[in-house]
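Spend some time on this chain, tokens included, and walk me through the fold:

. . .
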Amino acid sequence: MGCAAYHAPQREVTASRGAEPLGKAPDREAQEERLDNWGEGPMIAAIMSDSTSNRGAARRLLVIYNPTAGGSRRRRFEAVLAELAELGCPMDVRPTTGPGDAGHFAAEADATAHDLVVAAGGDGTINEVVNGLVGLPAPGKRPPLAILPLGTANVLAAELGLRIVPRDIASVIAQGAIRPVSLGQAEGADGQARIFSLMAGAGFDARVVESLDLRLKRLLGKGAYVVESLHQMCRRQPPPLRVTVDGREYESASVVVSNARFYAGRYLLAPEARLDEPLLHVCLFRYGDAFNTLRYALALQRDRLPVSRGFKIVSGRNIRIEGENTAPLQADGDIVARLPVNIRPLPDALQMVTAVS
């Protein structure tokens, strides 16, 4: 749809900052909807040159959004589209109707018709769009990606330096710098490859994601992750994982292969990770019992996890994770494969719009 024809209700819109760390109690609704300035800049080098080739003209947008977002998130979406209309951006808005639609719409994107693809939703919806774009056969035909965060954790928004404020989101989409980013690729035993922009995990967090009650998530939001985390702590601890990083072997109860600094919101996991660097940071959790799992969770919330006992980060480009056959691997919050898996970086795989000036 064209921008001039779009009219969104003009409302005062608040924004949410969500997280799904282990052991974190859900915030009150009023706290959840406060404005969030994120406090730190993005992890993309500010000295990199803007690759925008359409300076001066309004960007033509293909907006792919998840219409299940309600309440404040729906109001945020409408407010951002209204701001984009004011900025003169032509928009083709396509709602998803089920799993896979976001990736399908992205795979049909044409750089000659749209200057940007805008993924409006949570990190899972954004991941679908990323996979659709990377699946395009010719890199030159991939429109750059911008995000309109409507999720619980909004980790990618934090990495890109994006404030969860409608006017700021619209300004970045319409005028933000476009820069290349590296992604990660996980390939399971079935030979199917899945792309991730943030992280892939096996062990405790993957079991939580796999067993999460979606009805409870709709009811409790972030609290559903706390409930499932407590449930998983009480279950039998599976055998340790075997993790190989560039030929060196490690043993770990859980592992998160990170392409980004943050995890489950704005919680520091891998301090040296950068989206513009083709290097993955393998976060090894040595212990898997309930006490140490809770200790890791508390350290994560206090930004102390990188210096915690039994936690180690190893950087590499060729990673293999082995464990119980059919044990799950989650990527950007969704189950995407079963062990064993091979993971590697994809240098400069996609261009993204960032808040870097």
Residues 3-183 form a domain with the Rossmann fold fold (CATH 3.40.50.10330).
